[in-house]
Amino acid sequence: GCEIVSGLCELYVTVSFASPEKKKQYEQPIHEMLHRILEIGRNEDGLFYNSVNPKTGHSIDKGISDTWGYVFNAFYAVYLIDKTDAYRDAVLLALSNLKKYRNFDWEQGAADGFADAIEGAINLYNREALPHVKEWIDGETKILWSLQDTSYRQEAQQWKNTGIIDGSHCDGNFARTTLMYCLWKTQGVTVSPWREDVVFGAVYKNGVLFLSIKVDHAWEGKIVFDRPRHQTVMKLPLDWPRINQFPEWFIIDSQSHYEVNNLNINSTKQYNGSGLTNGMFLKLDPDIHYRLKATKR
Fold first, then answer.
1. Helix (H) or strand (E) holding 237
2. What angle do CA 131, 260, 208 make, to 5 degrees?
3. Helix, strand or coil for residue 279?
4. How far apart are CA 256 and CA 190, in angstroms?
């Protein structure tokens, strides 16, 4: 259901740009679908039940769906197009109540359930950065990672201590959500070449990106900053929330100029946007905690 609802709404967003007449044709049934879901599909905290009967309005399974965020992708995407405040309000209600669902039993403890719930939260936090949602994502990700060598499935014990969860396609969800989480913690910054001992993270605050990096052994390479991939890769006119997307955090505008300050030696260099997305060269020595600050000029 989450894929169907989101797919229909992504089609709606698409035709709002590509075929305005189709947008008008789809508007009423799309809004009717979303209003009906809000009417009968949520618990008191604004999270979705596993299943409901849309005709009778009765819930079939009152368990809470781990893909709640996938469905809210659809609501938020339509909100971006039509500015229907009720859809954004529904997202904010669910996010505001996540603190009640710490270590929740998503899919009876399945790693896949945790991964899907976390992914949805990351995607929506990218649009609505409520502070307590950050704390929830951090806490649930610790639980997700703890499942790597303690599979909930008895038949998967053959993979104990291998890093495999249960040997199914759901292990891909674990990997994808982990990548999403780590790219959030680096604000989309990556290093090339990657090496296990190159430890780095970033925080964006008040228009400034603060980057921290440390290595165990001498390293030289590039610090690569992210770009607006929805435009440059996907060719989308709008960065609406999408299932399985890698959200954009600190994004470099190729037409702008930036200033990068090395706080260790208080030196400053100027870069154009493409210079940062292609990679900023650094040579790092071990046991030195490097701190950089990037600002758009």
1. none
2. 20
3. coil
4. 20
